[in-house]
Every structure is written in structure tokens, then in C-alpha cells.
Amino acid sequence: MFINIKAERQIKEINEEFTGMFPFLKLEFYRKAELQQDRYTMDKLLPQEKKMKDVWISNKEEAVLEVPGTMTVFQLENILLKRFGLAAQVFRKSGRVWLQTIRTDSWTLDHQNEHGREITESAIVNQVDDYDLNPGN
């Protein structure tokens, strides 16, 4: 599994490639900022339309990045920062919301994705519509 990191590509294109490999995970990119409690703050979140060349922290290389499912979240975020100058955070789908994976950065991408699938599918099965006043009838 590979992601093409090229100057003219938009963040959303990188994310679409990543989510194509791991449907219950997504990447968010941030302006250069100090981590606060192991996470980037939402006010530093970059728009999905930004091009890679506009978000690189420093002049970095273009390349094809291999992203195996056995790679940990920590490894991926570290490679994106050190090799490409991209401050990124992996999020995992949990039902209808996306959670930062800061407490589980040691998990592999496959493990994160599978956990997201289990939680999301369980939430859908157990979902009761708000307007259903008589569940089970």
C-alpha cells in the first residue's frame, strides 16, 4: 500500500488514498505547532484543499511512501514529520465521530482500522432512532 506525496497534491487526495487503504482511519494535517498533551490543537488544522507544497514545514522531498498495515500510528506520524515535514495526526472512526489515536499510537494501522470497524458497526447495529418512542414494538 502506497501514498504518493507530491507537491501539487491536495491534502484531501492524500487522505482519500489513506482512507482507501484503511476505511476507518483518516489523516489530518496541521500547521507547524507544538504538540500539546501529545496532540495538535484544532486551531492549527489545515483545510483539505491545501496543496502539499503549501503545508510542508520545510522544503522536503516528493516520494511514494509505503504504508503497510503493520506500521504503527507513531511510525507513520513520525515519518510524515521527519521525511516530508508534514505535521499529521491519525484519527479512528468510532460510530459517528472521529477520535484522535493519541492513546493508542503504538497500535498498528491494521489494528486501529479493525477496532474502528468493530466500534462503528456495533454502533450502527445498536442505534435507536431518536424519534422511536416505542423501541421493540
Fold and architecture overview:
The protein is of the alpha+beta class. The chain has one domain (2-125). Helices cover 32% and strands 19% of the residues. The strands form two sheets. Strands 2-4-5 form a three-stranded antiparallel beta sheet. It has a two-stranded antiparallel sheet with strand order 1-3. The mean pLDDT is 84.
Give the topology:
Layout: E1 2-5, H1 11-21, E2 25-30, H2 52-55, E3 63-66, H3 73-84, E4 87-94, E5 97-100, H4 109-125
Antiparallel strand pairs: 1-3, 2-4, 4-5
Outline of this structure?
The chain is of the alpha+beta class and 137 residues long. Helix content is 32%, strand content 19%.
Q: Which key features would you list for this structure?
A:
single chain, 137 residues, alpha+beta, 3-stranded antiparallel sheet, two-stranded antiparallel sheet, 4 helices, 5 strands
